[in-house]
Amino acid sequence: MCGRFVSNTPPDELAQLLRARAPDPGVALDPSYNIAPTQLVHAARETGGVRRLDILRWGLVPYWAKDPGIGARMINARAETAATKNAFRNSLARRRCIIGADGFYEWQRTVDSKGSKRKQPFFINHADDEPFAFAGLWEIWRDRDHLDADGQPLEVHSCTILTCAANEAIAKIHDRMPVILPSDTWDFWLDPANTDLQATAELLVPAPADSIRAHRVSTDVNNVRNDGPHLIDPLETP
């Protein structure tokens, strides 16, 4: 799975990389080294024929949900079953996005010499330091109990990250990883007119192992209140 990630590339640079229109400076999010579920994230999506870097809530809220709290349990969607799950299948067909990330965290379960169980966090990023392009899905949930100034239901725009089996580089840490899309697939993935689920499913595979690198980091990342570049510093070997 993917439960925390890093986004520190400036929004205008991320938008340029993803060939998207950048958000207004007063709206764009600040850098974060510890993005957690239900927080806001930058994601590229195409609507009305325009690709924009929008701001979505991490944790997909299906349109049929009774309340947005369900999104906290929808931060990831398994690539193998997304096409058959009520929460994700419509989004997989028509509402796909790309979530930019400069890396993500995963926890390796270990047992020390005394038999005590612990979880060691790792920071995982691209071998060339370029941002990852996570395959994502998005949705709009309308709160019909709360209306805006025009009398319309308030909207929650949310997203989830698709995951797949881990490649050889990550399997020793965790058995799942985010789906990372190569740049030559972005146009196809983001095109809302593309409803070929078989063709999109072929993109939902592990990234090459040699494109990934990982190192141990401090358990400071375990606390969502902690943020800053020190969280991705390599942990010194005792």
Features:
238 residues, mainly beta, 5-stranded antiparallel sheet, 5-stranded mixed beta barrel, 5 helices, 12 strands, globular
Secondary structure: elements and pairs:
Layout: E1 5-7, H1 11-17, E2 32-35, E3 40-47, E4 50-58, E5 76-78, H2 89-94, E6 96-101, E7 103-111, E8 117-126, E9 132-147, E10 153-165, H3 168-171, E11 176-178, H4 186-190, H5 197-201, E12 212-216
Parallel strand pairs: 4-10, 5-10
Antiparallel strand pairs: 1-2, 1-7, 3-4, 3-6, 6-9, 7-8, 8-12, 9-10, 10-11
Structural features, described:
The protein is built from 5 helices and 12 strands. The protein has helices spanning 11-17, 89-94, 168-171, 186-190, 197-201, and strands at residues 5-7, 32-35, 40-47, 50-58, 76-78, 96-101, 103-111, 117-126, 132-147, 153-165, 176-178, 212-216. With 238 residues, it is mainly β. The model has no long low-confidence stretch (mean pLDDT 94).
What is the helical fraction, as a range of percent? 10-25%
Task: Please identify the structural class as seen in this structure.
Answer: mainly beta
Tell me, briefly, the overall form: globular
Helix run count? 5
Unreliable spans: none
Output the strand order for the largest sheet: 2-1-7-8-12
H/E series: EHEEEEHEEEEEHEHHE
Range of strand content: 35-45%
- Terminal Cα span: 28 Å
Number of DSSP strand runs: 12
Mean pLDDT, all residues: 94
| Rg of Cα set | 18 Å
